[in-house]
Amino acid sequence: MSHSISVNTTNFRVEIDAAGIAHLVFQPVGGMPVTDAQGHGELASIWPKLAAHPEVKVVLVRSEGKAFCAGGEMAMVEDMLDSELARQRVMQEARDLVRNMLACDKPIVSAIHGAAVGAGLAVALLADISVAARTAKLIDGHTKLGVAAGDHAAVIWPLLCGMAKAKYYLLLCDTLSGEEAERIGLVSRVVDAEHLQADALQIATRLAAGSRAALAGTKRSLNLWLHAAWPAFEASLAAEMIDFSQADAREGVAAIKEKRAPEFGRTAAGKSA
């Protein structure tokens, strides 16, 4: 790698190689990558820096952990239950993450292995070309948590895999393997896990050798389909943040911590609402 872009979080780092590929790498190495409160904000704001950097031609998002990124750290989620300010902050960051990835004229490639959840899944699927290991696990767990699927899904899932499949997986929170995700069109390409990093790097290298103007113009034009869906995204994001202030979200978090199935529609006292 030639040099790095300063990032004020331990959740990921960014390094630029000699070919002009910016490697956004989730970490820790061998551990479980997540996004804490600081990392979530950094992940939303890194894209304008990458877009403006004169040496960056392509962005490759990958992980050196045992998963791609398992989403928001539990402490951040619990803070959202109790704090309106936290909900407002995360809402703005979630909006910025989607907007900034769409506004980045440079191609973005994701290499997905293990679990991709929450903000990690958003980055994986908002990439222009997504490459998944067959054994990857793509999980949008919002409704299981008791909140609307609001961080990216409404803007892009129906365009990628169709409304029927989008509703099926987003309402039921079923896990998609990389192979199934590719079959329904949710990801661009699926490969064996041992070939994932090399395959994604090869795609990024091909893009880095392409015409910057031609690639940017094509991406910008195709993303108009996503911009047309922006009202649906805003509605889903608002619904998610409202839900975080409700009893179902508290029950969903409690169920995760206690490793049990949630019992929605009950008050804290355990009686029917």
Could you give the topology of this structure?
Blueprint: E1 3-5, E2 12-16, E3 21-26, H1 37-52, E4 58-63, H2 74-82, H3 84-103, E5 108-112, E6 115-117, H4 118-126, E7 129-133, E8 137-139, H5 142-145, H6 153-161, H7 163-172, E9 176-177, H8 178-184, E10 189-191, H9 196-208, H10 212-222, H11 224-228, H12 230-243, H13 247-258
Parallel strand pairs: 3-4, 4-5, 5-7, 6-8, 7-10
Antiparallel strand pairs: 1-2, 2-3, 8-9
Helix pairs in contact: 1-3, 2-3, 3-4, 3-12, 6-7
Give a structural overview:
This protein is of the alpha/beta class and 273 residues long. It has one domain (3-258): 2-enoyl-CoA Hydratase, Chain A, domain 1, CATH 3.90.226. Helices cover 51% and strands 15% of the residues. It has helices at residues 37-52, 74-82, 84-103, 118-126, 142-145, 153-161, 163-172, 178-184, 196-208, 212-222, 224-228, 230-243, 247-258; strands at residues 3-5, 12-16, 21-26, 58-63, 108-112, 115-117, 129-133, 137-139, 176-177, 189-191. The protein has a seven-stranded mixed beta sheet with strand order 1-2-3-4-5-7-10, with helices on both faces. A three-stranded mixed beta sheet has the order 6-8-9. Strand 3 (21-26), helix 1 (37-52) and strand 4 (58-63) form a beta-alpha-beta unit. Helix 1 (37-52) runs parallel beside helix 3. Mean pLDDT is 95; it is low at 268-273.
